[in-house]
Description:
By secondary structure, this protein is α/β, with parallel strands linked by helices. It has helices at residues 16-27, 41-51, 60-65, 81-90, 105-118, 132-142, 172-175, 179-182, 184-194, 222-225, 319-332, 343-361, and strands at 7-12, 31-38, 55-58, 71-74, 94-97, 122-124, 149-157, 200-208, 244-251, 256-262, 272-279, 282-289, 296-302, 307-312, 365-366.
Amino acid sequence: MTTTAPLRAGVVGVGWAGQQHIAAYQELPGVELVAIAGLEQDALEAVAAEHGIPHTHIGWEPLIARGDLDVVSVATPTGLHAPIAIAALEAGIHVLSEKPIARTGDEGQAMVDAARSAGRVFEVVFNHRRRGDIEAVRGAVEDGTIGRPYHARASWMRRAGIPALGSWFTNAEASGGGPLVDLGVHVLDWTLHIMGEPRVVSVSAVTHAELGPRGIGGSVGGAKSGIRASSTSGVSSPFEVEDLATALLRLEGGGSISFDTSWATHRSTPDAFGIALYGTDGGANLEVIDYATSGELTLYTGDGATARDVPVEAPPGRGHTAVVQTFLDHIADPSTWAENDGRVGLSRARIVDALYASAAAGHDITLDKNLHIIGGRA
């Protein structure tokens, strides 16, 4: 008989996102969570005691330097994603990073390059595509119910959901941007995933910062809404990012995507996100109110003369647990390592770069086949 030792895991960051990784590692077989790292001793000790984690480290460097870890999750402020992931990959550790991959596509490229050089799995968490309702919409595309999807209208809108005014979230250097890079990258990911990963050929975007700079719209949702409310290491920053973004993406073959995302707007409450999808043979509309585990989903079909509206009750999905399970499955199969190198997260970052460039320039931005901005940043 042969036995396989469980993978040894570490998690950097013990805020809301980090605790999702901790819970997943402790739930799933074949992995043992042995260490966590953060900057606040009290928080580390509390999380370690709650979950029975044997080792804690102040700062990420000693966790990577342990030398006995097989996998590391990165759940820190965005500006730390690249240095932690690259150090872990260079140490021969497989890495799962929270979204967005990094502050910019260039930082993301360095992470992907490190994964390829090390021959290790590197993946970015897009837990919303693992929701049951999102998977149901994707299924309607895959089984032909909708036909060829040609336009999507998607959004994630908050009324008062700026995550901790004055924290790293509102600091441009630490975060890389506002709701466009924070929430919009999720919207972008689930929409492209549902539509079958069409190539984006050009983008146009506008950003606004009207409420945040006046101290309006700070998060009141707390843990219920999944907003990471930690101020993170005493950062005290003016509001340097947008609080609303709107975008239009043109796709290869003539398709299109429009989406809006905000941290703070004068709108109805509660918060909501979702997608309306239009196809040649049908459509779909998904609306998730107040972060419900399963949203209101309707499929629209018919032959033109007769319309059929089909409500769909989708299961909740497994979120971070499903993402971590897939990550571990890929590690277990070395034949998949080369393709799981962070390229999906990188593609989203390149598109976000182009959207910010469009907003700054005030005109459309064209992308090449690798999603680089043609002619350089405007």
